[in-house]
Amino acid sequence: MRELFSEQTIETRVKQLAAEINADFAGKAPILIGVLNGSFIFMADLVREISIECEVDFIKISSYEGTSSQGTVHLLKDISADITGRDIIIVEDIVDSGLTMNFLMSRLEGAGPTTISVATLLFKKEVARLTFELDYVGFTISKDYVVGYGLDFDQKMRNLKGIYRLDGQKKSEEKG
Ligand code: IMP
Known about the structure:
Elements: E1 2-5, H1 7-24, E2 31-36, H2 40-48, E3 55-64, E4 72-77, E5 87-95, H3 99-109, E6 115-123, E7 136-140, E8 146-147, E9 163-165
Parallel strand pairs: 2-3, 2-5, 5-6, 6-7
Antiparallel strand pairs: 1-9, 3-4, 8-9
Inosinic acid is lined by residues 35, 38, 63, 92-101, 145-147, 151-152, 175-176.
């Protein structure tokens, strides 16, 4: 296990992302929608650096990549907020294949928000296949599996304060 980003590096970057959001959404009241479970720590840190009026909600999905490039996504918990006519910001821990984010984007678009933006702490740019641009990216990383700061390996290691690369590990089953 090798450290990729220290607690301090993450803290600095999260503050920068929040500053961008504060500037971009000045005078508005966006709803931040966290994608459970992985985003809970990023969301908690990000939202406390946001100084504009905002709301918080969560959605939970599970994705299975399997062997096909398509994969399947299941909704486990929907948002509670009415997002019609609102500015929303999806808050994700990591965009890997892009399957989850593509699903979320089309699902949330269907509810008629005014704008949808995406904030992800980590982005596996080489592997992601997205049909849109990401608005706020903490760090672009390689395709290696990472843990810590909310990200798990078999539901464990979410509590690590930094982000670590797991050497020689691959996981293609259930995510989230
Ligand atoms: P995607 O649908 O392939 O983009 O994967 C998104 C979800 O998979 C994320 O929300 C994470 O929960 C999980 N995931 C993807 N890559 C990693 C990783 O390297 N470490 C931990 N979780 C990951």
